[in-house]
């Protein structure tokens, strides 16, 4: 018999369930996500100094209320303890991967994404040198210490894919625009979340290079748990790392 999810009105709200005292003392939190386009999966979140998120298949035989929602899974068998009605940005899935690739190829990001960050930095190096630090993905571990296990079969090109890790999280990325010395964009996916990255380099009147960046994050639940401030901190540290590498420090 299909197992029926308790109606959201009768359940504890997701945020109270996740962040209450009982959850703060637990390890991995497993959250079921389902959306209007038929996608459903479980996001396994492990808190800590380096939090991780892993996407898992959804349990079979669940009767889910409404076209979209989220619920906490209490045990490995998939019994549901709490649910929540649609929560706006918490359930925003964003465009599909192909649409995001088309956007970043034109230098655009997902403007509706609930988590966004932007920044820029001046670098004492030529635009081509700065751009190459970004495009040579196998050098990324020199940019920031948490980046590791970068794998790319070829040089940066539109549609070219590469994989890498940030802390415990494995990420797959695909290049969009690849314009040496001017523009580099790519889309990333990890644990059911989609990221867009747009980097521009330009020479200033003072002879420096201005490196600017825009990034977005969208994905049911995970985007709600990673605020724009957290993504901004990542962008700021990344820009500082690119500056240090490009300037030979």
What is the percentage of strand-forming residues?
Answer: 35-45%
Radius of gyration: 20 Å
For the largest beta sheet, what order do the strands appear in spatially? 8-14-13-12-11-10-9
Mean pLDDT over the full residue set: 81
| CATH architectural group of the largest domain | 2-Layer Sandwich
Distance from N terminus to C terminus (CA atoms, Å) equals: 63 Å
- Report helical residue fraction: 10-25%
> What class, by secondary structure content?
alpha+beta
Protein name: SRPBCC family protein
Organism: Glycomyces albidus
Describe the structure.
This is SRPBCC family protein. It comes from Glycomyces albidus. Pfam families: Polyketide_cyc2. The chain is an alpha+beta fold and 249 residues long. It has two domains: 3-86, no CATH class; 97-246, Alpha-D-Glucose-1,6-Bisphosphate, Chain A, domain 4 (2-Layer Sandwich), CATH 3.30.530.20. Helix content is 22%, strand content 38%. The protein has seven helices and 14 strands. The chain has helices spanning 14-19, 21-24, 97-105, 127-135, 140-143, 222-225, 228-246, and strands spanning 3-4, 29-34, 40-46, 52-57, 62-63, 69-73, 80-84, 115-123, 147-152, 161-166, 169-179, 183-190, 193-203, 209-218. The strands form three sheets. A seven-stranded antiparallel beta sheet has the order 8-14-13-12-11-10-9. A hairpin with a 5-residue loop joins strand 3 and strand 4. The longest helix has 19 residues, at 228-246. It is elongated. The termini are far apart. Residues 1-26 and 79-87 have low confidence and may be disordered.
